[in-house]
Amino acid sequence: MQSEEYDFDDGIKSTRFKKLQKKLRKEVSWAIRDFNMIEDGDIVMVCISGGKDSFTLLDILLFLKRIAPIHFDVVAVNLDQKQPGFPEDVLPKYLTQQGIAHYILEKDTYSIVKSVVPEGKTYCSACSRLRRGSLYGFAKQIGATKIALGHHRDDMLATFFLNLFHGGSLKSMPPKLLSDDKQNVLIRPLAYVAEKDIIKYANYKKFPIIPCNLCGSQENLQRAMINDMLREWDNAHPKRLASMFKALQNVAPSQLADRTLFDFENLKTERDDNERLFEGDNIQVGQTDLLDEMGLPTAPKVQTFNPKFNKIPVINPVLD
After folding, report:
1. How far apart are CA 275 and CA 58, in angstroms?
2. Which regions of the chain are under pLDDT 50?
């Protein structure tokens, strides 16, 4: 479908497109800067699937490569998993026409997964491990120093809620990650970019999107439900997703319950000798004999709260 925001007669981008393009380029630049994703001399391997996210990522990184104050190279890599009906010619044709250095890796992981996963079970875990293993190994083989993935802000939020609802953990996709075998550094330059902006951008650019025909597994259905939930929230409360993503960057371990991140066991007070009287009207005292036995005051004093001289106390000093 042609976008009404594009002048197809003279090929000039509309003002709205230019504004969106500038926004996305800034957000990707900020993410790269904030997490030191790309350094001088890097060879960035962009994993391209044929979806809107990886096309957008590749397009923006190629632009930043031209204007960046440092030198880095970009190479596109696609893993053709030999799924039935996958249009094998689309990506090579596009990448060649655009003059983009690329590799197309051919590996029938589809048949492997079908053969090892019992009937009725989900394929996602096995398929993902095979795909990651192939791409990670190839990055090392060609000497790529960074692996760029097309996950965006909404993907990271969806993963957080998937783990919260179904995994019993508070974790998401980090913008930058060292692989478990410590052989590769993964980066997600679209970490600050909203999915709805990527959809608009891909429509403007008319990328040759390849429809996703992956199996309708339970995990994918769960993710789809969470994505629907996030979209509903975004429509009803436009600033909510931005606030939630900000929360992923503002973690307070002392306000959660993970004993490996915060030493709850050895918490101790550090009280001084300054007396703080109860700021109120009266204190009723009962069972003074028992209080006296415990060494507690039987007639505690009170003082009047005066906003001119007394600040409203902070409920939780740790958060102050």
Report:
1. 63
2. 1-10, 216-218, 319-320
Q: What is the mean pLDDT of the chain?
A: 88
R_g (Cα) of the chain, nearest Å: 27
């504004």: which residue's tokens?
19
Provide the pLDDT for residue 284. Answer: 96
Look at residue 320 in the predicted model and tell me its pLDDT. Answer: 41
DSSP conformation letters of 228-282: HHHHHHHHH-TTHHHHHHHHHTS--GGGS--TTTS--TT------S----EESS-
Distance from C-alpha of 39 to C-alpha of 315, rounded to nearest angstrom: 44
Task: Compute the C-alpha angle 96/50/113, nearest 5°.
Answer: 120
Contacts of 184 (CB under 8 A, 6+ apart): 136, 139, 140, 147, 178
pLDDT tens track for 293-303: 999 999 999 98
Single-letter amino acid, residue 289? D
pLDDT in tens, 91-134: 999 999 999 999 999 988 777 777 777 666 666 666 677 888 89
Distance CA 317, CA 304 (A): 22
